[in-house]
Design goal:
alpha/beta; 4-stranded mixed beta sheet; Aspartate Aminotransferase, domain 1; 14% strand; globular
Amino acid sequence: MRIFLSPPHQTGTELQFLQEALDSNYLAPTGPMLARFEAEIRERSGRANALALNTGTSAIHLAIRHLIDHRHPREDPRRPLVLASSLTFVASVAPAVQLGCEVRLIDAEHESWTMDPVLLSHALQEARSESRQVLCVVPTDLYGQRCDLKAIIGLCEPAGIPVLSDAAEAMGAKDLEPLSPRPWAEVYSFNGNKIITASAGGALVSDDDLLVHHARKLSMQAREDFPHYEHRELGYNYRMSNLLAAVGLAQLQKLDERVAQRRIVFEGYRQRLAQVPGITLMPEAAWNRCTRWLTVILVDEDAFGASPREIRKALEAAGIESRPMWKPLHAQPALAHLRFYDHGVADTLFQRGLCLPSGSALTDANLDEVCGIILGTR
């Protein structure tokens, strides 16, 4: 049987919740399951507001659209400026580019593989020297690891710059430092390969009532409060359906258990691979308890005897899915024109990194098989 990278792990209550949704006859993007799902997200996130949407990308889009509408000076002919992580999936910055923003990319740091606060500081200083107002900073949590929000918010807060945290890969991660600062808004993903899935979907969470009120309106085609369809601005069809919310609600009740299982999978890989010359595993930064959404190894080809590509092809031949790390956005043809604050970390991680099967239902036998093939490539 094929071993997938990060398959869904059902809880056993999805069918019951779906039946409740069907019995209610709310099949459109509204209904009691959607309201319950948002309430559960609010409770778990500790934020005042949660808006469930059809994708995490939509959540990023709506947050940046809100900032453009409410924060970017209309008299400024220059495009809104957004600073974002380079080592991430393209959806982290695509909405900003599509909305006409100027995006500048920030390299990763060694400690966490997430946005480097030192380089962010340089980018902010350069923006000030250009008399540019930064619309927002978009750091990305990577493979379940939280970015250094304390440092990032510490740089942005004095200048009144909102931090929009892309936590799509890290729902369930824990901040370990007391009184850790919270970003202006966070984005979650419930895509089919995440720890918690609704088969698709995402959420925008924030304590900013105005943001979530506006985003909610925009997500439903920006209809005004009239008996007829009245539109003073143009919106989108971005709401999550009541049926998907039923699946998400069932899944969310097992979040802590699924995180614990992913961490057990990582520990299994660590026990089997940590002492192998040429292989290192993704670090866990001191400020967080990582979810280990994906277990990632770095391969030193000279010391190990095989390249990440050779390992991936050997695994694929055995019916085991693995994947290179995210190709940094500054190296993507569609985004190569963007300014990049660089010290080579993201490029090195991409060249040496490999994501291993990390599903929460993996067994010891599965781990033995995966690791046996990896070791057999030497």
